[in-house]
Specification:
With 276 residues, the protein is an alpha/beta fold. It has one domain: Rossmann fold. The protein has eight helices and nine strands. The longest helix is centred in the middle third of the chain and has 29 residues. The protein binds NADP nicotinamide-adenine-dinucleotide phosphate (NAP).
């Protein structure tokens, strides 16, 4: 039986994951910004903390409280997050500051606050919910992709840093899942001008049409995450959803093709003595 700390269990993927962990008898410390969600603790134990992850002081306090309640965190899940849609040129500073505070700085601060106790445990798993956007960005969500891509990179470095302490790290990149993510309740939009109608406008129309019809089932994502944390050797990266798989493969193939095509120029910058 595991003890989980999950940010953003009010709805969506975080709620589905909390419910799945509780159903099998695990203990969940989940964070919400407002009222606790209606959730049956089932065979498990549920503790709800109030936390706006953009507040650094509140993050420190919540992590301390969590260890005070259960004494340990086996699985730390940075799940709370939201998207910002629009062209990069059209995003304003305040919106980008808040986006980065929630999607990038909060996971960093939560991990930093939890690591001393997790290192002392000598075991544990950090899951960062990123996005396929962070690996294969599309027009119209570049700053969200930047935040999620940064968390992917942070996860890779972190995995190397904490492995000697018996800690594991997985960056989980979902494709489109049927949550509130694309609804006006969650998503934020920059002002739109006609200049980007063909690129950003088209991408956003595609997302608007997808809302409510996403392929991904949050309950199945939760079960996949349980499988992941139970694996003796979990992956550093996990894609969730066939759409994420397709986008990742297209991206990797294009990247390899481009590296190969420009290989001579890439190699041309070494000092003479190391050429050959
Ligand atoms: N669904 C998708 O298609 C998809 C795809 C790729 C990645 N993701 C990622 O998956 C994660 C979960 O998203 P979701 O699909 O479950 O979306 P969701 O249904 O909109 O839920 C988002 C969750 O994040 C919380 N949250 C947002 N801002 C917060 C803040 N400042 N402080 C604390 N909590 C905050 C929300 O709490 P409130 O109820 O208080 O707003 C809610 O619990 C996010 O990191 C998202 O980027 C989702």
């Amino acid at each position: 039986m595991k003890t989980w700390f999950i940010t953003g269990i009010s709805r969506g993927l975080g709620k589905a994951l909390a419910e799945a962990a509780l159903a099998r008898g695990d203990t969940v410390i989940g964070t919400v910004r407002d009222a606790a969600p209606a959730m049956d603790a089932g065979a498990g134990a549920l503790h709800v903390l109030t936390l706006d992850v953009a507040d650094p002081g509140a993050v420190r306090q919540a992590v301390t409280e969590a260890f005070g309640i259960t004494g340990r965190i086996d699985v730390l899940v940075n799940n709370a997050g939201y998207g910002l849609l629009g062209a990069i040129e059209e995003a304003d500073d305040a919106a980008v500051d808040q986006l980065m505070a929630v999607n990038l700085l909060a996971p960093f601060r939560i991990i930093r606050a939890a690591l001393p106790a997790m290192r002392a445990q000598g075991a544990g798993h950090i899951l960062n919910i990123t996005s396929i956007a962070g690996r294969a960005p599309m027009a119209g969500s570049g700053l969200y992709a930047a935040a999620k891509g940064a968390v992917e990179m942070m996860s890779e470095a972190l995995a190397q840093e904490v492995a000697p302490f018996g800690l594991k790290v997985t960056a989980i990149a979902p494709g489109a899942f049927r949550t509130d993510f694309l609804s006006d309740h969650s998503i934020r939009r920059s002002r739109q001008t006609d200049a980007y109608a063909d690129s950003v406008g088209a991408a956003l129309n595609y997302l608007d049409e997808m809302a409510g019809r996403q392929k991904g089932d949050p309950a199945k994502a939760a079960q996949a995450i349980l499988t992941l944390v139970d694996a003796p050797e979990p992956p550093l990266h996990l894609l969730l959803g066939s759409d994420a798989l397709r986008r990742a493969r297209v991206k990797i193939d294009a990247l390899i093709e481009e590296i190969d095509r420009w290989e001579d120029l890439t190699r041309s910058t070494d000092f003479e003595e190391s050429l050959g």
